[in-house]
Write a structure and sequence with these properties.
single chain, about 725 residues, alpha+beta, 4-stranded antiparallel sheet, 25 helices, 20 strands, cysteine-type deubiquitinase activity
Length: about 725
């Protein structure tokens, strides 16, 4: 077993023979109560590392030796007391890195067995204290070490800790912004790594995770497909031929990640550039077309090294900060947290709040929260001060609430105080919500030559009251926010005042035009109502029918017959009649909020239960509009997801697009995600509120900290100072 090893070791007379070391280990293992003196102990450990680095043989051939080494090292680490234990581990890891970073060493993968000294739960800990990392080794040394580890991943399965150690090493390189090292070395080794996947029998799952981590992290790297192309067909064909579940999982990850590479590189291309790309990578594209990409690989949530490298190169630019800030959950405030993250992602809204409404009551608190979410030195912000100021008896932060209802209330709160100064406001008192009639813009021409029938307009058209989602007639397709009785009561009282000019309605407000045709006299009447969201119901459909957001929008605006309790008072007949109704959007909002009413009311349990209707959450939608309204295309930028089976309970989180891609904001836990992740959620995780930006609306970057008004900037600086001081005090009190 050790003949070849003896030959290699004997090439260097200064290296101890493997047989001698193996004999020593076995003797020590036979004396479980004996621990060598410290100096001898460390020297022996270093000799073991050196010998293993040049030990040639298969895992089966070396099994006996490696088992003995593991037994010896585990006994040492569990028997030694600090600080000697730490000294031994540091010495072993220092020697380990010295060897793998030496381009002349040709270190053998058997050496990875010494990683048994690391606790599996602390695989990243050595990188925080390792002297070789703190000393700032050259990029060449870091790259040589990484290349060695990649080679081992493809050759060796006998060291369970190896894959964790490689992932930990890559993470530390990322934290130290060594993206050039990661990209160049990984590109050079990607063909070898990918080819290792074609033999699933010999591939440890943890090693496969390293390979997919590398592939996904390289997905935005220029010419990366040149490294994938040579072996892609071989790998996919081999995995298809193997019918085991493990092979299917490998196949799906390879397809998903490679598809993401193609999508990213091909996405911005047009004309001849696109033709050239398709021609150059025809084999790759054809190969992928034979398989279905799920686009749900967990590895696609990883940040791409290419984009991270570009941000690191931006230096001190505040807008290049990759870190995202979450919001602490105060017990049941996920419904508020999710709304705040979606509003922050509504860039025209959040920018204007910070720059122009920072001195208005309640708006100032929102501006401060937005700025903390962008420039806090912590990764999480405590929103307690902000939530307490709302002081609403209707939305107690200790009770779970509906996000749509809360957002409607929050808009009314902001509208009520849009023209009141922050410095004059007493936040100890509950806010007073003022009920306004929505301000309707002048009507657009319904047609080039409107008929007499089209000119008949219901005199009650302006009675859309703040707090409702839409003022449109409620029926089976549109979620009812109030009853006809409530409308009658409103008509017998003094009408509320007309709303002043509102920034909220400037951003989110639209006008829906409802046309009713009396089924008796054929009189056509219209109503015009302001809306801030569209609440879309799901039509009855076959069990396997798949809805799309676009189909639900079209259903909302389609022609329907209103009968029975939904009959409408015909202005010509003077009484309620069956009517044919059709809705069309007259004014499209700059930002469109869609609420998906994917639930039904359980009359026995008195709860709103989810329907779990299969739905494709369209990234682009088009609103049916009057001919004079030409701006009607929208693109999704955020979604609030409800997790649970009943709308009266569960959990909310947000998916939102930021300057550097999509992120999942789950209270204070923020992770990178793919824009298509919304399509592959578990059945109980259903997008409830979708946020779209009209295609003609330009998105600006969030203002830099220097551009933030002084009153808000100083509060954020105080917040950061307190956080830093708290961290420093904790560090000083640690043993």
């Amino acid at each position: 077993m050790v003949v070849k090893n003896r030959e290699v070791v004997n090439d260097n007379p200064n290296q101890p023979e493997l047989n001698t070391v193996a004999t020593y280990i076995r003797l020590i293992n036979e004396q479980p109560n004996y621990i060598p003196p410290a100096n001898e102990l460390i020297e022996n450990c270093l000799n073991i590392v050196t010998c293993l680095s040049q030990t040639v043989g298969t895992e089966d051939e070396l099994w006996g030796l490696l088992t003995a080494v593991e037994e010896y090292l585990v006994r040492l680490i569990t028997s030694l007391e600090c600080p000697l234990r730490n000294d031994v581990i540091d010495a072993i890891l220092d020697k380990f890195f010295t060897i793998i970073s030496d381009p002349t060493s040709d270190a053998r993968p058997a050496m990875s067995v010494i990683l048994i000294v690391l606790d599996g739960s602390e695989t990243e800990a050595p990188f925080g204290t390792a002297r070789w990392l703190e000393g700032g080794p050259s990029p060449a040394s870091l790259g040589t070490a990484l290349a060695c580890l990649y080679r081992w991943i493809t050759e060796w399965n006998a060291s369970p800790a190896l894959s964790d150690w490689v992932l930990g090493y890559m993470k530390k390189l990322e934290e130290n912004e060594q993206y050039d090292v990661l990209i160049e070395v990984s590109k050079d080794n990607l063909s070898r790594l990918l080819l290792a996947v074609h033999n699933p029998t010999d591939l440890r799952q943890s090693n496969a995770e390293v390979i997919f981590h590398v592939m996904a992290s390289l997905r935005e790297t220029t010419d990366i497909l040149d490294k994938v192309a040579p072996n892609l067909a071989v790998v996919l064909n081999a995995l298809v031929a193997d019918s085991r579940q493990w092979s299917w999982q490998l196949l799906q990850n390879v397809v998903d990640i490679t598809t993401a590479m193609v999508d990213h590189l091909r996405g911005p291309l047009l004309g001849q550039d696109l033709v050239s790309f398709n021609s150059r990578y025809h084999a790759v594209i054809t190969c992928l077309e034979q398989h279905m990409a799920s686009r749900s690989s967990q590895f696609l949530r990883l940040p791409a090294w290419g984009s991270q490298s570009n941000m690191a190169a931006a230096g001190g630019n505040e807008m290049a900060v990759v870190r995202k800030v979450g919001l602490l959950n105060r017990g049941t405030t996920c419904y508020v947290n999710s709304v705040m993250q979606a509003l922050l992602a509504t860039r025209e809204f959040s920018n204007f709040v910070v720059l122009h409404l920072h001195n208005r009551a309640y708006w100032a608190k929102l501006a401060e929260l937005f700025t903390k979410l962008k420039y806090s030195v912590s990764t999480k912000v405590d929103p307690d001060d902000f939530y307490v100021t709302m002081n609403s008896p209707k939305f107690n932060i200790d009770i779970q609430h509906d996000t749509s209802e809360f957002l409607g209330y929050f808009f009314e709160l902001l509208l009520s105080y849009e023209h009141k100064m922050d410095c004059d406001h007493d936040y100890s008192k509950a806010p007073v919500i003022v009920t306004y009639r929505r301000r309707l813009p002048p009507p657009l021409t319904l047609s080039p030559n409107p008929t007499e029938e089209e000119a008949v307009v219901d005199n009650n058209q302006d009675e859309a009251v703040a707090g409702s989602s839409t003022g449109a007639t409620a029926n089976r397709k549109r979620a009812r926010k109030g009853s006809s009785n409530s409308r009658k009561r409103q008509r017998t009282t003094e009408p509320p005042p007309e709303a002043p000019e509102s920034f909220v309605d400037h951003i989110f407000g639209g006008v829906i035009l409802s046309r009713m045709r009396c089924m008796v006299c054929n009189t056509l009447s219209t109503t015009r109502d302001v809306f801030r969201d569209l609440s879309l119901a799901f039509p009855e459909a076959k069990k396997d029918h798949i809805h799309t957001v676009q189909s639900l929008v079209d259903y909302y605006c389609s022609t329907e017959l209103l009968t029975a309790d939904n009959r409408y008072k015909c202005p010509a007949c003077g009484c309620k009649r069956d009517v044919e109704r059709r809705a069309v959007i007259e004014y499209t909002p700059r930002y469109l909020i869609i609420v998906l009413k994917n639930f039904k009311f359980d009359t026995k349990k008195l709860t709103q239960n989810k329907l779990m209707s299969p739905t494709i959450y369209s990234h682009s939608v088009t609103l049916p509009t009057v001919p004079a309204q030409t701006q009607n295309g929208y693109t999704m930028y955020a979604a609030i997801v409800h997790e649970g089976t009943s709308m009266s309970s569960g959990h909310y989180y947000t998916l939102a697009k930021t300057e550097d891609g999509w992120y999942l904001f789950n209270d204070d836990d923020v992770t990178k995600c793919n824009e298509d992740q919304i399509q592959f959620l578990r059945p109980c995780n259903t997008p409830y509120m979708l946020f779209y930006r009209r295609d003609d609306v330009d998105e600006a970057l969030f203002p830099s900290l220097n551009e933030v008004p002084p009153n808000i900037r100083e509060r954020v600086k105080v917040h950061n100072k307190l956080y830093i001081e708290t961290v420093q005090k904790l560090q000083m009190t640690r043993p």
